[in-house]
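ugh ok fine here u go
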Amino acid sequence: MREGTKLEVADGLDVIVDIPTSEEFIANGEGHLNAAWGQVVDLLLALKEIRLAVPEGELNEADEEKYWASGGQTVAMSVASVQHGVEAVLKGRIAAISPYVLLAGPPSNWPRACDRQDSSFAEFRTVDAQDLLKLHNTVSVQRLSENFQQWFEKLRKDRNKAIHSVSNKLRLTAKDSLHNILEAHEYLFGAKQWLSARAKYLDLIPDNSIRYFRNEGTKPYISYALAREFTVVAEELGDQSASRFFGYMPKLDAYCCPKCIDLWEQRDFHDSQDVEEVSKTFQRTEIGEFQCVLCGYSCVPRFSNCDNEEGERLFDEASNRCLSCGAEQ
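structure:
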């Protein structure tokens, strides 16, 4: 500035207000992914209950095809939620550098009088979804890979197919939607992180915000809800995807997780039969110990006799639980 020049500042601070933080964008994105997951998993859980309720032989393949045709709109909405979730997370990663980079268009197209009065960030048009990935990879040192770019383009096409198509031949399946959710989370947050992220999300749902329930303890209920979800999802995805996304090997022997059962028994309405209704998630790892894919508990079990099973069985020494039946001896 030249000597003698005075910079005049207008009264007050006329700025852009209500600017979302990076954390808020990312939380919004995770919310969309969890909403999509909940929509599909609810359909899978309901179908499982139907299979148990309908007499044997009375439910055939045609019945299940009608079920999924009726649920097609729900699956389509879940795919759209996945796309919204990915876009929100990308915005969050960009906003961590500068939220102003998200503003689109020349200043002449910005809200009227924004240069003379406070204007909310929501009043500004932001970068189009189709430009988010290029913008992200331009400003972020954590560039997303070519594989992600190809996947993101496929997701966009899946979303358009799901929303705009009325043909059953083009209808996306529950498995398609689950894959999209898990792949999105893998690309954006790292491999095999979904189950722990899902547990954190369940802890924040409206029911669990009630003080009485929080005082009573929500973790046992969240743990069993997650086990029920995992059971139907692993079956729907198949062996290869269950291994990729969860580290779960369906073809390997699996046992009851003693730590999970300890939690489930703290529920007011726990029944020992509940253990039989969910997948066994305790498996041997490459280093010889056993680990639960849901809660992460690990141990090196010992052999002992079980009151409920014939012959020697594997036991968790800390809880003295049989890993075959889950009972405490």
